[in-house]
Amino acid sequence: MFFFDCDKTLYDYDFRKRLPALSRLTGVSQYRLAKQWWVGGHEAAANIGEYPTSDDYLAVFAEVTGYPLSLEEWREARAAAMTPVPGVLATLARAATLGTVSLLSNNPIPFRDSFAQLAPEAAALLGENDLVSAVLGAEKPEPRVYTRALSRYGVAPGRTMLIDDSAANCAGAEAVGMHAFQLTKDASGAFDVAGLDAAVDAFVAATP
């Protein structure tokens, strides 16, 4: 089984594009949005499921910032920060022919509810296997994220592989017995897809 991260893995992600887009949509300054929502801990709370529905998330956002953000507006700002990584999406497609594939991403419920619109290329391959931290009640690299994900699929950790850009997240997966590959970029910004493909092949060859 293969677990793929989303941001900076399947899709490149740039918060520096998301915040200005959100500011344009809401009329709230970037400074205020960053301070009140992100620094204020609300996005972190959403990522661990404290706002269990998109409506809950948006209601708190309105209370905190004073703007009644719609899910469509949230999605538009989020999409502005995302760019598909074709090589990694191709690896996802290949992995889907070798075993089961699933998302495993630190994100809130509005992300999961919008995944088909935000990431249609990945959603077409993953289907309903769209796990986010808000559903699991904790963020990577906490051990319970991985153990809860494994329990969802009834799979042993040694038969799973995490693909993630974060060294800490990969270490967390390995600590519970999973295999992991940290996806990195070179100086030109190109992702190490060749290294990823080699790691996938090695994992498959070593897994009975």
TrEMBL record:
<dbReference type="Pfam" id="PF00702">
    <property type="entry name" value="Hydrolase"/>
</dbReference>
<protein>
    <submittedName>
        <fullName>Hydrolase of the HAD superfamily</fullName>
    </submittedName>
</protein>
<dbReference type="InterPro" id="IPR036412">
    <property type="entry name" value="HAD-like_sf"/>
</dbReference>
<keyword id="KW-0378">Hydrolase</keyword>
<dbReference type="InterPro" id="IPR023214">
    <property type="entry name" value="HAD_sf"/>
</dbReference>
<dbReference type="GO" id="GO:0016787">
    <property type="term" value="F:hydrolase activity"/>
</dbReference>
<dbReference type="InterPro" id="IPR006439">
    <property type="entry name" value="HAD-SF_hydro_IA"/>
</dbReference>
<dbReference type="InterPro" id="IPR023198">
    <property type="entry name" value="PGP-like_dom2"/>
</dbReference>
